[in-house]
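User: Structure with adenosine-5'-triphosphate, tokens only please.
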Amino acid sequence: MNAISASEQAAALKGPRALYEACIASGQLRPDPDQVRVAARLDQLWHELRGWTPAPPPAPAAKGFLGGLMSRLRPEAEPPKPPRGVYIVGRVGRGKTMLMDLFFSCATIEPKRRIHFLKFMQEIHTRLRDLKRQNPGMADPIPPLADEIRDEARLLCFDEFQINDIADAMLLGRLFEALFARQVIIVATSNTVPGDLFQNRPGADAFRPFIAIIRRELDTAELDSENDYRRGREQDDATWITPADETARRRLDRIEERYAGDAKAEETVLHLAAGRDLEVDHARGPVARFAFNSLCAKPLGPPDFLALAQRFPVIVVDDIPALTPDDANVARRFITLIDALYDNGNLLFVSADDTPDHLFPEGEGSDAFARTASRLAEMGSESWLERAGQKDDRLSRA
Ligand SMILES: Nc1ncnc2c1ncn2[C@@H]1O[C@H](COP(=O)(O)OP(=O)(O)OP(=O)(O)O)[C@@H](O)[C@H]1O
Ligand SMILES: [Mg+2]
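Assistant:
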């Protein structure tokens, strides 16, 4: 979605449902009854959170005979129950992330945090390792870790909740139990209903208690509208644009804009093996943009292209010419570049004089080019765009 307007900012003060409606009114979003239903559930949570004060952490137990007697005589009132979080589930492109982000932007509870779930898991593993290293005698690092997380975020919004590995599955059960006990409010998006998480895998049985916790603590809101809003955007999503004219350049500008977001252009030099450098023509956030000749008319090889692929998830190449038999060296480098980007799962957008199938019809290595053309076709497919977009957290909002 585009930048938020003044009327949308005003709507945000009234909650996610008003903000959603303002986005419909301004034409940023198309009306969708299923989304309205989920927006209403998030709106309920928004209101509940405004009227809720989290219970303070429990005070240490009173000491001695008198202290114990006093606390029994004056039993503490049960703190009010926290509002139930929401687990938004549905197929791809239905608007789950969009709705969660609307909710997150309005939520008044502080501190709050929105994070891609895989990144959160990486962070958890690192923090557990650090806690254990700093406190060698510590029996169980989960409670102190949960305390820290609670202090950093009373509201945690997870994008793309998923469980891929048994170690995570076991760890999460205990961590989430501890977070719920500390009244951390959780909202998540996922493609998988809780009951199907980590099923049909070795160790699935051990994971069942975690599913029970999720069901006990979170309401599931299904978002299964008919529209996949990522479809029907061929214009925007074309990855191989022909011919390489002014229109193509402008379309690539828009694509760059979409992925770079607020990032500013900055001079970037990649330090390659053997002390060589590669100056990026135009680097902006996750995007590196090059004229074709800056990449393929230079003596660069596989490790160089791999370094580039790993540093920038989105590569844009302007002005790929039709290649003749005299261009065999350039064509070979282009093949190597595509292999690196393909293996690393990058997003690639180009403007070219011809389609991949017709770009290098004859010359040394033109038969190997057929495989490159096929890889390029896959790299332009919707599923590739989706997967590559999800792989890197910097792109998850694009
Ligand atoms: N009602 C709508 N009108 C127009 N565009 C929409 C609408 N709902 C969502 N979109 C847009 O469609 C794209 C996909 O939405 P979103 O990323 O929220 O889907 P998702 O359900 O999270 O998909 P995934 O499961 O792949 O993560 C986004 O660019 C979003 O802004
Ligand atoms: Mg999403």
